[in-house]
Amino acid sequence: MGLLSAQDEATLKQHLSVITTPVQLVLFTQTIGGSESGPVAKQILGELTGLNDKITLVEKSFVLDAEDRAKYRVDKAPAIVILSDDVDTRMRFYGAPTGYEFVGLVEAIIVAGTGKIELDPETMKWIQAVDKPTHIQVFSTPT
Amino acid sequence: MAAANQLITADAVEATEFMDLSRKYRVTGVPKTIVNETIEILGGLPEQDFVRAALELPDAQP
Known about the structure:
The complex is a heterodimer.
Chain A: H1 6-16, E1 23-29, H2 37-49, E2 55-61, H3 66-71, E3 79-84, E4 87-94, H4 100-114, H5 121-128, E5 134-140
Parallel strand pairs in A: 1-2
Antiparallel strand pairs in A: 1-3, 3-4
Chain B: E1 8-14, H1 19-24, E2 32-35, E3 39-42, H2 47-54
C-alpha cells in the first residue's frame, strides 16, 4: 500500500504540474547497517516520481558510490540531493522526508523544477549579496 | 536561500534520525537552524527576520 492517499496524489500532482525543468532526486542509502528510514525514503520518492514525468529518482549506495558521495558532499544517510537538470541545487534532505520535511521537499522540488524562488525582493537582495560559503542546517521532526 | 546563491548549501535534517548531530547542536526544540556551525536560530521566524538572523545582518532601522 502506498504512503500517499489518492487525494494526496491528486493534490500533489496539481502542485507539481508547474515544473518545466527536469528534476533528479539522488537518494543515498545504506543497505547494511543503515536505518529503517532508507527504505521509507525510497518509497516516498518512488511515489513522488510517479506523479510527474519530469521528476526522476537516482539511487546511490552511501557505501559503494563514494565518488558521488564526495561530489555532493553527503556525509550521512539516508540523504536526498536535489538536482535541477543535473545541476546541484545545494538543497539536501537527510532522513526520511515525512511530515513537515515532506512539505519542504515538495517545495524544494518545485523551486528546482521552475527556477522560481518565492522570496521578498529585499530578502533576495540580501541572500544574493552573500560572498562566502554558508552552510545552513535546519533540524526538524516529522510531527 | 541555496537556490538563490551558489555559495549557500541548505540541509534539512531529521532530528530524531541523527541524534548525534542533534546533541552536538543542542537541538532541544524544532525547528532549530544552525548556520556555519555558530549561529543558532530556534523556532520559526518571518522570512526577513530569519534571513537577517542567518546572515547576521543588522536589524532594520526604525
